[in-house]
Structures are given as structure tokens and as C-alpha cells.
Amino acid sequence: MNSDVENAIIGSVYDAGLDASLWPGVIGQIVEYTHSRTAILTALDQLNPNSNFVHAWNIPHVGIEDYQNEQGKLIDMRQYMPLWKQMGIGDVIHQDFPRYAELPDQDEGSFYEKCLKATGICYIAGVLLDQGEYRSAFLGVHRSANEPVFQQEELDFLKRIGVHIRRALQIHKQLSFARIENRNLYKMLDTIKVGIILIDEYSRFYYSNNRAQQLMEQNKIFEFDQHNKICVAKPYQKKFEQLVQAAQADHKHKNRDIGGVLALENTEGQQFMITATPFSSMNSLASLADQELNYVVLSISDMEQRYALAVPFLKEAYALSARECEICELFVNGLNLEKIAENCSLTMNSVRTYVKNIYAKMHCCSQTELLHKLMGMTIHFEHVY
């Protein structure tokens, strides 16, 4: 495998995290690099349908249309969920599909007829990018029957690139929440709940969204020197500098992982997580920066950050009202009924009535059962190691 080509692909992955229209080109690079015939990158999240996508390379349009049909995607999830549960997120599989045609009355046969037959796909190698009760994401590269099966070094590459795609998808998911109402990138970045900071290769500060500004002002995560460089608490400074260096998109560090995650504390002992990723395409933020420098995006979250629920899903799936969703979010963040009443300016009787209605709509019989159900519907930024 070629480390220069691989690093270039990684840089393209992070650009696509901000601009989803770039994914087909990224997938094309992966197809060429792995000597594959076709590929597909799919993300399905019932809690955040605005983040759903299917991007493919060299797959006939009819195959994509059939796959994008909800039945096709759900069959795909049912097909692979048991297998992925055994292996886990970030793991790689390789399979062959000829036997699917021999099972016409089962999901395998239906999936073959709807999504595989027209493509000529015989061998697949793939990496699981996300998995949950309501979500699934997967990158698959394919070869035909007259091509060789995938080798271990190609599977190893998929595992490596999977880490970076997972990080990029976290950025994509956060932006998708804001994209509904805001088309301008700056406005979208200000809407999302994770802190975003843009720095250059010398750790000089260029931009922060609203959430990052709140974290910096209230929690003193960073300090600034006379050159506007950001620094962290002394015990973490060396690791932070190494993280920033590793996340640069100049591809000088051929034998090192690109980007990474750092857990740190401020001077008061509050804990935070930082994910550092390269940002090589400055077109969307052209007014901020010098095109000749390398840039790094820092995604920051407070480890005690409040849970956010998938409100559109709760409204659609359970017909919860806006007030009921508000009560659920307060409940999942640890408030008891008295505190919920105080926060919502309601009487205790009103809160009990709302909770009773929530139980009925969500088919729950106790606070424990409701909490368990709601925790499966939280939306958060995952720091991918």
C-alpha cells in the first residue's frame, strides 16, 4: 500500500465531512486504491433522517434506486446486523454473494434481486462505521467474479480508513441538524452542540463556533499566548502539540495515524474530550485563512455535557408534543419531577399528567423503563479513537 496516496484519501475524507457532495470522489479514490470495481457508502439513522445518505461509485443507477428504497436499506440492516453485532464498530468483513441467488424467498434473495443482480457484484469487503438500534453505517468495496478476492492488506486499509470516515461522519451528523434551517456554514457551525475551533499548523487560533466560545469562556480550556496560539493545561500541552501535528494535512508523517483524540482537564478538574482532524479544503471558510497553511479542526465536548434527544423522531414516532419532548429531555438529564415542574413553570399535577401521557405514547410503565428507552434516542458527538 502507498502511504502518500492513503494520506491524500484521508484528507479528502475530512473535507467530505463538511461537504457531503465530495463523498463520491472520495469513494472513487478508495475504489482505485483497493483495485475494486464498485463501492458504496451508506448511513441510515432513523433518529436523524436528515443525515441519511447513500453514495456509490460505478454502481448502475437502478441498483442505487432500489437500495435507497426504505425496504432495501432495512433489508440490508437486517442482513448484516447479526454479523456486525459479533464483530463491532470499526471491524472489517469480506464475503461472497453467489449463494444469495439461491435463496429467493428469504431476505438474502430479495437483497440480491433488488440491489446486487444488476451490479455484477460477487466479492465484498467492508467496514462497519456505526451501529445501533436505530442506525447503521457501512463502507463496502466490491469486485466481480473474474477478479481476485480481497487480500489482508486491503482489509487492513479499510480498517484504517474507517476510523477517519467515522470521525467525518460525526461532523456530518452534527451539521445535518443545523442544515435544515441554516444554509450558511457559519450559521450551521453556530447551531451544533459540539465546540468547533479552527487553528493553523502553528496552533494559532482562527475561528470558533458559539459552543466553543462558551466552553472557552466558562471553563478556561485554553489559554492564548502573544502570538494568538492556543495552549492547554501544562500536563497535557505536549500531547496536544503532538495531536495538532498529527492532524495536519501536509502528509509529512507517513508512518503515523492522522488526527486523534485527547482527554484533558482544565485547572479546576473539569474533563473534556478533543478530536483533532485535518481541514485541507478552505473554500467554505475562505475569508478566515491563508490558503498556503495547513489547518486543523478541533471538536470539543464537555464530558458532563447535557444529553440531547432526537426530538423530530420522538414527535414522528410517538406523537410527542413539544412540551412532552422538553420534559423527556429534562428527565434524561437527571431532573426529578419537582425540578422539571420548576424548570417548565408547571404545577406538579400538570407534570404528572404529561408524564402519564408520555408513558402511554411510549408504552412505558416506569421511570426506569422510560429512561432506558430515552437513552437509546440521545444524540451526541462521538470522539472516535
UniProtKB/TrEMBL annotation:
Limits of the HTH luxR-type domain: 313-378
Species per Swiss-Prot/TrEMBL record: Acinetobacter bouvetii
A molecular function (GO) term: DNA binding
SMART domains linked: HTH_LUXR
Residue stretches in coiled coil: none
InterPro entries: Sig_transdc_resp-reg_C-effctor, Tscrpt_reg_LuxR_C, WH-like_DNA-bd_sf
Entry protein name: LuxR family transcriptional regulator
Pfam family, one: GerE
GO biological process, one term: regulation of DNA-templated transcription
